[in-house]
Amino acid sequence: MSTNESRIESFIYDNVIVKKFMIATMVWGIVGMLVGVLIAIQLYLPEFYQSMGINLEYLTFGRLRPLHTNAVIFAFVGNAIFMGVYYSLPRLSKASMWSSFLSNFHFWGWQLIILLAAITLPMGFTTSKEYAELEWPIDIMIAIVWVVFGINMIMTLVKRREKHMYVAIWFYLGSWVTVTLLHVVNSMAIPVSLMKSYPVFAGVQDALVQWWYGHNAVAFFLTTPFLGLMYYFLPKAANRPVYSYKLSIIHFWSLIFLYIWAGPHHLLYTSLPGWAQSLGTVFSLMLIAPSWGGMLNGLLTLRGAFDKVREDPILKFMVVAITAYGMATFEGPMLSIKAVNALSHYTDWTIAHVHIGALGWNGFLTFGIIYWLVPKMWNTEIFSKKMANAHFWIGTIGILLYAIPMYWAGVVQGLMWQQFDSSGALLYTNFLETVTEILPMYMLRSVGGTLYLIGALMMGYNLIRTAKQGSFLKTETGRGIALKDQEHEEEMLNGKAKWWERSKWIEGKPIPFLIASTVVVAVGGIIEVVPMYMIESNVPTITAVKPYTPLELEGRDIYVKEGCYTCHSQMIRPFRFETARYGEYSKSGEFVYDRPFQWGSKRLGPDLHRIGGKYNNAWHYKHMMRPEDMSPGSVMPLYPHMAENEVDTSLTVKKIVLMRAMGVPYESNYENYVMRDYDKQAFQIVKDLKASGIEVGANKEIVAMIAYLQRLGTDIKGSASSTADEIQ
Amino acid sequence: MLALVALIVISLCIAVFFLILFIRAVRKDQFKDTYTPSVRMLFDDTETNNNSNS
Fold first, then answer.
1. Which residue has the higher pLDDT, A216 or B3?
2. pTM of the entire structure?
3. Which of A174, A260, A517 sits opposite B11 (nearest CB)?
C-alpha cells in the first residue's frame, strides 16, 4: 500500500474543451433545425421566398437540403459526440487528454469546416453524394481534423491509468477507425478546379461506394459513438451500473462485425447485382439482434428506478432516446426486406425513419447529456427543472407530429404510385396528384419540426440561466497510478507469470504486429483485385449508350449543382407500376458515363431517367422558369436564374479531357472540337426556343440544362425490346 | 464491378482488423471481469484513487 501511495499521480480534467463543444452543439443544432423547418415549409409553399420579394438561387430546396442534413449530422451530432468523448474519455482513462493543443485544433478545425459547408453548399458547390456533399478541399480538411482527433484519443489511451477500457471507449475507437476509412474511400475524386471534382468510380459502382458510405455514416457516426455516450452517461445520470456489462461488450463487437455489410440495402431493386442486394438484406436483418440487445440493456439499466424517470427530465430524455433507437433499428431491418422496400423506397417513409433516429435517438440523448453536464460543470442546479420538463414534452410531441404524418404520407404516396384501374392503366397517371394528396401531411410535419425547434430554444435559455447562476469549473483534478507501476505491482504480488501470459511475442509489439497484419490483408486484397483488372469489366456495356456531348455534360454539372437529386431519382425499378409510368426500367450499362451517379433516394418529384424527348424544349424552359405555369400545383422551386447565369465554359475542355483520362471514349483529338460542338448544339436549342417565342442566349445555363434533360435515358429508347441483344 | 470487389476487400480488412483487436483484447483480459468496470465508472469523480491493489 505504501509503495502505491507514493506513486499516485494527480492530473486535470479539462472542462473548457467540453464547454466549447457543448456551445457548438447547441448553436449548430438550432441552425440545422431552423434550416430543416424552412425547407419543410418550402415544400408546400414553393414560392415562400418570392412572396416576400426574395429571389435568390441559394435558397432552393436542392441547395438547402444538403445544408440541413450536413448541419444536423456533422455539426449538431458531431459536436455532441466530441463533447461527450472529451468529457468521458479522460475520466474513464484516468488521464488528461493527451494534447490540449490538438483538442483545440480539433475544435476550431471542425467549426471552420462547418462554416465552409454553410457557405459552399448554398452556393452550389457539391459532389451530390448524400451526407458527403462537401467538395474535395473541405474533404481533405475533414480527414486532417479527424485524424488529429484520433491521435489525441489514442495517445490518451496509451497514457491511461485505468487498465480496463470501459465499453464506451471501444465504441469511440471502433467508430473512429471505420469513419476514417469510409470518408477516405467515398471521397476519392479527381479535381477539375478548386471547387469541382469527379468521383473515380462511375454509375453503379459510384452508387455502391456512396451507399456503402451512406449507410455506414449512419452506423458509425450517428449510432456507435452515441451508444458509447449512452453507456457512459445513462449509468451516470441514473447513478447505477449498466444492466449487463457483458451484453454491452457483445453489443459492441456484433455491431462492428455486422454493420459494414448492410450498405446495399439502400439499392434494392436498382441496377446493382442481385447477390449484392441480398447480402445487404441478410446483414441488415441480423442487425436487429445486437441493436435490440443494446436497447434493452439501456432500458433495463433503469429497472427499479422508474420512479426516478417520472421525476427527472434527464432520464426522460434518455429513455425516449433509447426507445427511438429501438424503433429505428427495428424499422431498419424491416425496410431492408425487398417486399417492404418496394413500397417504402423513394417515399417519405424513409424520411420518417431517419427522423426517428435524428430527433429521437441523437437529439434527445444529446439533450439529456447536456442537461446532466451543465449543472455538474457549473457546480449548480438546473435553473428550471419545470422548463426542462416542458422541453421534454414539447420535443416529444414535436417528434410525433413529425413522424406520424411522414409515415402516413409515405404509405399513401407509395400505394398511389402502384395503383392500377380496372382496365390495367395507372390510376394516378399524373405524378403531381400523388404529391398534392400528401401536402397536408407536409404542413403537419413542419409544425412538428417547429415545436422541436422551440424546445431546443427553451433549452438554450435554460442552460444560459443555469450557467449564470453557477460558477464554471474550468478543471477538475483526478488521481491515479500509472499503468506500468500497476503492472509492476501485480507481478510482485502474483509471482511469476504463467508462460502463456508471458508470451508477448506478438501482442507485446503493437506496431510490428499492425504492419504484419496490414501486409497479410493487403496481399489477400491484391490477389482478389488483380483478376478484376485482367477480365473485362462485368458492368454490361450497351453499344447504344454514348458519352455526353460537351453541352450535356455542362448541363449535367448544373443538375448536380442545383441538387436535383434531392427530389428526383434517375433509377426506374423493374416493376410494372414504374415502367408504366416512366418507361423502360434502368439498366446498369446506361450509367457507365455518370460521374457522379444521380440515382437519388427520394421522389418529391417524378423519376427523370426517361425524361428525354418527353416534352419539347419550350416546355422545359417555361417549366424551369416557373413550374406552376406548366404543372398547376407543382411544389418545385423556381429557377429563373438559369436564364441569367452563364455556363463557365473555360473548364469544358478540361472536363472532357479528364473524362477521357478516366476511360470515357472521346476521340483522341476531341479537345479541338469541344467548343465547336458545344456551340452547335446550343444554337440548335436556342433556335428551337426562338420558334416558340423564347429569346435566350446560347451560353446560358438553361440551354445546357435542357440539353441534358432531353438526353436523359434516350440512348436505349426505341430499342427497349431489343436491349437484351445489345447487352454484350 | 471493381468497386464491388474493392469494397468487399476493404470491409474484410476492417473486419479482420477488429477481429485481431478483439483477440488481443481478450488475451489481455479486457473482458475477464464483466461486472466491476460497470460499477467503477460510477465513482470516478469521488474515488479517483481506487485500483486493483487496494
1. A216
2. 0.90
3. A260
